[in-house]
Amino acid sequence: MQAALVGVTGYAGMILYQLLKGHPNVKKIHLYDHKLTESAPLSTVAPVFKSESKPVFPYDPQQIMTDNDVVFFATSAGVTSKLSQPYLANGFPVIDLSGDMRLNDAGDYQKWYHKPAAPENLMRQAQYGLAEFESARGQTYVANPGCYATATLLGLAPLVQQHLIAVDSIVVDAKSGTSGAGKKLSTTTHFTEANDNLQIYKPNQHQHIPEIVQELKNWDPTISTIQFMTTLLPITRGIMSTIYARLNHGVDQATILKAYHDTYDDQPFVHVTDTDLPTIKQVIGTNNCDIGLAVNSQTGFVMVASVIDNMLKGAAGQAVQNLNQLFNYEPTAGLDLQPTLI
Amino acid sequence: MQAALVGVTGYAGMILYQLLKGHPNVKKIHLYDHKLTESAPLSTVAPVFKSESKPVFPYDPQQIMTDNDVVFFATSAGVTSKLSQPYLANGFPVIDLSGDMRLNDAGDYQKWYHKPAAPENLMRQAQYGLAEFESARGQTYVANPGCYATATLLGLAPLVQQHLIAVDSIVVDAKSGTSGAGKKLSTTTHFTEANDNLQIYKPNQHQHIPEIVQELKNWDPTISTIQFMTTLLPITRGIMSTIYARLNHGVDQATILKAYHDTYDDQPFVHVTDTDLPTIKQVIGTNNCDIGLAVNSQTGFVMVASVIDNMLKGAAGQAVQNLNQLFNYEPTAGLDLQPTLI
Amino acid sequence: MQAALVGVTGYAGMILYQLLKGHPNVKKIHLYDHKLTESAPLSTVAPVFKSESKPVFPYDPQQIMTDNDVVFFATSAGVTSKLSQPYLANGFPVIDLSGDMRLNDAGDYQKWYHKPAAPENLMRQAQYGLAEFESARGQTYVANPGCYATATLLGLAPLVQQHLIAVDSIVVDAKSGTSGAGKKLSTTTHFTEANDNLQIYKPNQHQHIPEIVQELKNWDPTISTIQFMTTLLPITRGIMSTIYARLNHGVDQATILKAYHDTYDDQPFVHVTDTDLPTIKQVIGTNNCDIGLAVNSQTGFVMVASVIDNMLKGAAGQAVQNLNQLFNYEPTAGLDLQPTLI
Amino acid sequence: MQAALVGVTGYAGMILYQLLKGHPNVKKIHLYDHKLTESAPLSTVAPVFKSESKPVFPYDPQQIMTDNDVVFFATSAGVTSKLSQPYLANGFPVIDLSGDMRLNDAGDYQKWYHKPAAPENLMRQAQYGLAEFESARGQTYVANPGCYATATLLGLAPLVQQHLIAVDSIVVDAKSGTSGAGKKLSTTTHFTEANDNLQIYKPNQHQHIPEIVQELKNWDPTISTIQFMTTLLPITRGIMSTIYARLNHGVDQATILKAYHDTYDDQPFVHVTDTDLPTIKQVIGTNNCDIGLAVNSQTGFVMVASVIDNMLKGAAGQAVQNLNQLFNYEPTAGLDLQPTLI
Q1: What family name appears in the similarity comment (chains A, B, C, D) (predicted)?
Q2: Which residues pair with C40 in a beta bridge?
């Protein structure tokens, strides 16, 4: 199969390109950039790939659909909201790593993204692709989940789906490395400011909040909101979503562990580490989400720690999971990665 | 006045020694080390002070009481539980930076510290010294608060004292730099393991939990426990205590801000930054506790971020605050410090 | 005395402002900003000083000379080259932290700074202010040395002045934290790029090279150039200049150590640590330059490690040293700083 | 083929195990640990591999030779010096990642390693395995090079082999991340000490010096020593060896670049980046050595920057290169790795 990738210059695009190169079913990758007006070698467009002279083509949806079997968008928010129409109209498969088509509601998009939304009928045609819960098989347009949303939803799923917690007690304290903020320069991610520091940002305003709530509602319609806070860590890669919730009456550690194992033991990428709490480092370099927990019998709360590599399970890796579902490949094809370890 | 310092080799002791050297009312500092059998120059005992030939004396309580007006203990847990008796018996002022005398209950101490406790009657004579709430004036034995306890209690005080939140909804996600773990080598604080990582540790078992609960109970006797988790950051200095709680009916942001300002506007070291959330870096190098907050009207929760320099407000700085109260010095004497900034 | 400070928003300006506030002889500080058109509170101009409502005035040389006894410029390169004339014309004392007036040769300035130079006659009137070697006493315009130049020149001085090495064998491998690059955002100092990395930059092109050579020539006119390379460290503050040179015949470790001690034992801020090699951390927070060395009897080379806090001895601290010399204050006035230690 | 690995618990052993698992020609890996007395699951012996129940066997040379085609030692210095005899006696292939058999001279070993050496006749039978210059084909015992030695020798080879520089002017300022120091805890690698710091260590005493000199002598017998210094960076992985040398008369940048390209253009893992100086980050995750340079026509020096991932090209990766040579596999088998990028 042949795959198109739009946006190889951003961090997620770079990593996705590496994964696709290692994917056994992807025979050819065509690169496109919506800022180019004529073709240029990859080594020029993305100097990090210095030895690769492969061309990057200007963006052309017709060409993309003619020459490829699927297109990945690793573009910033605000791009695919404008570009999604022809693919949906032609039933051509898209895997969109941006947040543009994750929400079903145009008003929500505008409120949280501060940008014009795609037409709402298109938004509704896109399917949210949290790979462990929604198969991309048979879909046209897969909205690949956000990094924070992935770690948080995987951490919450068994608790919410099996009604083990008081949903109005959920508190999520999520932390991310700086790569999540992308290549764009900012004071917050200036080394002198970010190093030796911890910075809460976008309090109650992070654009992954509506995405999390939308998915939680599918699992439990009584949920209408969530207390969720994002903090910038002085590390490059990785997310930890630390989740707190009050256990429902009669729920104990054994019940909870069983729920997590029932949910994830068949999943190749989600590992339940029981009461051995995972560190961020143990998942870096992999598409894994490791989840551990601690029940506090005094307070009646459970704390769940869910960790991912934001560039892999939180972006490019999950995009490949969705590719594998779309085309009925082995679930782990292209994702048999070993952790960085140190 | 003349001050004795026992334990100049640990991180808190080093910083305390620096503060005492800069304190306008401290005329002379005598150093003691309970591991020495004979005097040795400071440059040998603590090579970080390479140019100082000042003697460090073996530990001798009689000598300490004869030659000084106060003694500071910057020793590890388990030391002052054995040594506190003569000072209490003689009414000689002690400021104890260790956790040995913070709790009133010997059973609690043994449960959380995994060490034999001091006799409970002595434990009860020691006064917990959270400087903004308990004056050390007139006290004999001041138990200087723990670093996490300081950040957390200062962050919670207005909410709990003024009954603005549902106390059973409190969740504290606290983060600390590695210096809080001291000089003792461990795998957790080995650079290769700690760098680029985030590690939750001692889940529901941190020894500052009973200290926090004991103090909260003074403010609201209905509190019997707290959901509190500690995470190791890949930074050297600083603590952020991120506190979540559900607001009581009718409490809004204005009410809360007023409560914080009423509580702290007269305090020289606690700064309420309103909705401008503080970063760890902004307090490093100072004895300040900066507190900001974000009310979420959708969830009905408030998030409070309370940051301190764990070595200063979380240890040596607060010890000097307690000294100033004990001896009726200016509250800011010796603590007029400027932030590191960058 | 009253001091004017132009440029409080940059890193060096912030630190200098802190030092001046703590200086016993500075009664009043007036702040100016050449980008302002009308006065504004400091908390607005430099939000890092959130609690300070002190006014920052628009730049006005006449006002500065009327209201102050000295002016500090903590502005970027290219500013004082245009502004220096009135001060020199009026004999009004200036301490200039920028590189604009350090070189004597306008052509050199243009070559290395890629900007128009000040008139060469003004450049020659400015005195280079490496505080251990040129007294600012009696000067009008002091060009405060660059950070790399300070560490390197102090490390080289005894070797060059006393002709202990083959000057054409000198190799300097200098490393700096990111704060040296200032607040300006760049890809090189983006956290995601700088963290976990080491980046050589401006190879053979750093603008401190001609400044170092100019000063070395004063000490040994046979020197015409120097092999000097700069590397960006993933730390915030601090410089280490690692210097290598071949020893002249008959020079051994004892000779060298004597030379360093003869040169620096009377200097309050330069500490010769002999063969105990200094780390960057040990000088952070101080105006010190610590220098240690290792003689290799097999290769006949000496390696000298010279470390400074680039913000203090490398910028604001040395500026205060120059102030003290200009006004005949105690050499350590305002600079009695304790190291950060951890 | 079947491979034995002794020492999977150390950092290099962990990474080597990962590489062998991904090697197309390695059908089975047997793990051994010389500290075990009976078999234990890998998840217990090296908890980082939590999901692997594969057995780790006690060390038994006879068993190793019976069940495998090659043995890798990823053990600390001082182990294989005692264990090498049976393999050499039986002509059984060994790839030894430790430094025990790299030197030919027992006296040198004892001087630099401070441990008893292997019998010198055995030391001479071991072949130093800098993969770009000595083929392991037909060898029995390959001494895999040290990390610093690899970066430095690859950086120096064209200059020394083609006599382009004055060899007595060579100065190497080498820097490494903390993983090079291994899992062993030490104050130097305690996070609180190593973070925000730069520490020169083992001045003129690093055990890789004699190994570098021994190899350089093969290339130019007039070399008898080298000026080489090691510095600990506050990063986890990676080495940069910054090399300075005076160019011989008539040698210019074009000559040098040609020499590097002639030497390395056929090598799959060494990339000459010309005057685009490499960063450490660009090789992390790969077996590459990237080399760039800057000629200074004023000083007549060349600076060469040579970067590697110390865990891969500096240890486990080069060990696999040697495996490929020993068994005549594709040179890049098992080493087709993509850089971490961010």
Answers
A1: Belongs to the NAGSA dehydrogenase family. Type 1 subfamily.
A2: C56
Nearest residue in chain D measured CA to CA from A338 = D18
Query: In the 8-state DSSP scheme, what is residue D181?
Result: G
- Helix/strand/coil for A202: coil
Chain A contact set for B198 (CB, 8 A): 175, 233, 235, 238, 240, 279-280, 307
Q: Residue A124 is part of a domain; what is its CATH number?
A: 3.40.50.720
Q: Which token pair is C24? A: 């016993």
Chain B positions contacting chain A at CB under 8 Å are 168-169, 171, 173, 175, 192-193, 195-200, 203-204, 224-227, 229, 231, 233-238, 240, 242, 244, 275, 277, 279-281, 284, 294, 296, 298-299, 301, 303, 305, 307, 342
Dist CA D263 CA D159 (whole Å) = 10
Name the minimum distance, in Å, from the CA of A267 to any CA of chain B: 25
Contact partners, residue B76, CB within 8 Å, separation at least 6? B7, B10, B98, B182
Looking at residue C133, its pLDDT comes to 98
For the stretch B139-185, pLDDT in tens is 999 999 999 999 999 999 999 999 999 999 999 999 999 999 999 99
Nearest to C192 among A187, A196, A236 (CB): A236
DSSP label at residue D168: G
**d(C-alpha B30, C-alpha C277), whole Å:** 30
d(CA A199, CA A232): 5
CA distance C287 to C150: 11
Asked if residue D336 is part of any domain, the answer here is: no
| Whole-number Å distance between alpha carbons of A90 and A85 | 9
Kindly state whether residue C81 falls inside one of the protein's structural domains: yes
Identify whether B147 is a catalytic site residue: yes
Total tally of structural domains belonging to chain B: 2
Tell me the average pLDDT across A210-227: 98
Record: contact B198-A171, CB cut-off 8 A: no
C-beta of residue A308 within 8 angstroms of C-beta of residue A147: yes
Q: Which two tokens stand for residue C279?
A: 């780390």
Task: State how far the alpha carbon of A164 is from the alpha carbons of A256, B119, D198, D284, in Å.
Answer: 8, 44, 50, 43
Query: Which positions of C are catalytic?
Result: 147
∠ Cα C29 C34 C36 (to 5°):
95
pLDDT in tens, C143-179: 999 999 999 999 999 999 999 999 999 999 999 999 9
Tokens 């997620």 correspond to what residue? A12
D335 part of a folded domain: no
Percentage of chain C surpassing pLDDT 70?
A: 100
Q: Which amino acid is at C144?
A: N
- pTM: predicted TM-score of the whole model, two decimal places: 0.98
Q: Which domain holds residue C157?
A: 148-309
Q: What is the mean pLDDT of chain C?
A: 97
Q: Are residues D178 and D90 in the same domain?
A: no
SS3 content of chain D, % helix, strand, coil (to 5): 35, 20, 45
In the block, tokens 């006894």 appear at C69
Do A59 and A125 belong together in one domain?
yes
D89 shares a domain with D192: no
CATH number reported for the structural domain that contains residue A165 in this entry: 3.30.360.10
Asked if residues D101 and D33 have their Cβ atoms less than 8 Å apart, the reply is: no
Q: Is residue B331 part of a domain?
A: no
For residues D80 and A3, give the distance between their C-alpha atoms in angstroms, rounded to a whole number.
50
D210: confidence class by pLDDT, cuts 50, 70, 90: very high
Chain D residue closest in CA terms to A276: D50
b/e for D170-199, b at 16 or more Cβ within 10 A? bbbbbbbbbbbbebebeeebbbbbbbbbbb
Report helix, strand or coil for D339. Answer: coil
Instruction: Give the position of tokens 């970066």.
Output: D151
Q: Are residues D71 and D115 in the same domain?
A: yes
C318 and C294 housed in the same domain: no
Same domain, C156 and C304: yes
- C-alpha angle A214/A220/A221, rounded to 5°? 70
A192 and A108, same structural domain?
no
Together in a domain, D109 and D247? no
